[in-house]
Amino acid sequence: MSETPTPAPESPRGSWPLYEIFVRGKRGLNHVHVGSLRAADDRMALLNARDLYTRRNEGVSIWAVRSTDIAASAPDEKDPFFAPSGDKVYRHPTFYDIPEDVPHI
What we know:
Ubiquitin-like (UB roll), 22% strand, 1,2-phenylacetyl-CoA epoxidase subunit B, PaaB_sf, PaaB, phenylacetyl-CoA 1,2-epoxidase activity
């Protein structure tokens, strides 16, 4: 009589870290956020992201970044956070002379 192997205990999915997934397409120059997923480790995050977000071979590079490692500004602080650049008028091109022969400016 053969014994059935006991499956290894798995950690519940809720305890897996959340990853943000960025994919660079074949025609793109930058990575674009395409979604989020939970995975047990970095390798699993990359494999699952490949299977989930590049099913039609549209990607050439994938970044899987733990959400806890991303520093972001808060949406409710957008006015005070970006306000300092408004008082630096030298950053605006209105003070520069643009030659006539320069197109598309």
